[in-house]
């Protein structure tokens, strides 16, 4: 299977350890992912601001880079959803829209790909902690991926997963939303933080990089710096130090 790993901007610039962990986990699942050289933003921030026309060049770039992939895997529900929306960007270009539909059908969020496509859920991971999993809006409400991450976490030795009162409540980030409506964003974030703290968990796990960074920042601001991990980092703890919590980074694949 020719798998290409789409690395979100926030993972590249602020959470590279999550990208390293994704590589390690996918390799352990039996595939050899390639990170396309010259990869750029999926265009989601521009799209959310109403600049669909400016997203088209970015979409074309992704279409070209991933044209030969059997599957495109992304450790972000929001970027996955954006790529799946590419067909609507080309209403007057039937050929490009057809390519976009084909790519959309081959694009998977990381946990979805592991559980639903590869049928793998146990990586021998061990993380002795009490953890809360945050359902991001894009992962849960948009893609309907509630069960997959929880199945993966249920296979992690030593990990006790506790549910907050409102696991799918928005963390307040929402990309440009947090910048355009900071007051509302901060209120939502504080509600989310209180919900997490009420569980008495010591670790916050998320499959959405933007939510994870937002929650991490808010916890630090509140002087309650709980451990925050992308789900790929948790799964990679069983892979001999290859990209897990504080583990050494594996060698990037060719073309990465």
Topology:
Layout: E1 3-5, H1 9-14, H2 16-28, H3 44-48, H4 52-65, E2 71-74, H5 77-84, H6 94-105, E3 107-109, H7 110-117, E4 126-134, H8 137-142, H9 147-154, E5 157-162, H10 176-180, H11 182-197, E6 203-206, H12 209-221, E7 227-230, H13 231-235
Parallel strand pairs: 1-2, 2-3, 4-5, 4-6, 6-7
> What's the number of domains?
2
Class inferred from helices and paired strands: alpha/beta
Taken from the alpha-carbon principal axes, the silhouette is globular
* Overall pLDDT level: 91
Number of strands: 7
Protein traits:
256 residues; 2 domains; 3-stranded parallel beta sheet; 13 helices; 7 strands; disordered C terminus
Description:
There is one protein chain. This protein has helices spanning 9-14, 16-28, 44-48, 52-65, 77-84, 94-105, 110-117, 137-142, 147-154, 176-180, 182-197, 209-221, 231-235; strands at residues 3-5, 71-74, 107-109, 126-134, 157-162, 203-206, 227-230. With 256 residues, the chain is of the alpha/beta class. The strands form 2 sheets. It has a 4-stranded parallel β-sheet with strand order 5-4-6-7, with helices on both faces. β6 (203-206), α12 and β7 (227-230) form a beta-alpha-beta unit. α7 crosses α9 (147-154) and α11 crosses α12. Mean pLDDT is 91; it is low at 246-256.
Short description:
The protein has 256 residues and is of the alpha/beta class.
